[in-house]
Design brief:
This protein has one helix and ten strands, in the order αββββββββββ. It has 157 residues and is mainly beta. It has one domain: Hypothetical Protein Tm1070, Chain: A, CATH 2.60.290. The chain starts with a helix and ends with a strand.
């Protein structure tokens, strides 16, 4: 009788632990680019594309999170910009140097992305980073796949 009770309690404990673990089905991943310089006539842009397809069961692919720009002192510039990218969609988040609060003709920045992955929701986020001349649009820096986990895309689990 004692063994059966211990067995039932053990199974009950494992089952309740599994159920509780399922209620927390999203987890954020935060990654940062190394610092980069931005001139007084430039704009910095992070492009985020969701390459995941909708599931055959009807779950829509969706990548969500925020993008933030930080100055050299480590202070966020403005507020974090939320993004949502559906299947095949590209979303861009930009910061013009005129909005960065530089005191001179150049400033140091970094970009931080926080991606929220939700269990069962397809997300295959690929990113690129660029700086370009604000007036002409001429690219100065272009970096593909700048945010990735172990050299791959940020994927929903």
């Amino acid at each position: 009788m004692t063994r059966k009770l211990a067995l039932y309690l053990g199974v009950g404990l494992l089952t309740s632990t599994a159920i509780l673990a399922q209620t927390n089905n999203s987890s954020p991943i935060t990654q940062s680019l190394p610092p980069f310089g931005l001139g007084s006539t430039e704009t910095a842009r992070l492009d985020l594309t969701n390459f995941a397809s909708n599931t055959t069961g009807g779950t829509a692919a969706s990548c969500t999170g925020t993008v933030s720009f930080y100055n050299a002192a480590g202070t966020i510039i403005g507020t974090a910009t939320p993004y949502t990218a559906t299947s095949g969609q590209t979303v861009s988040v930009s910061l013009a140097s005129t909005s960065a609060g530089f005191s001179g003709s150049r400033g140091e920045l970094r970009v931080v992305i926080t991606s929220t992955r939700t269990s069962g929701v397809p997300c295959e986020l690929r990113t690129s980073f660029q700086t370009f001349d604000t007036s002409s649009g001429a690219s100065h820096i272009y970096l593909g796949d700048v945010f990735s986990e172990v050299s791959g895309p940020i994927r929903g689990r």
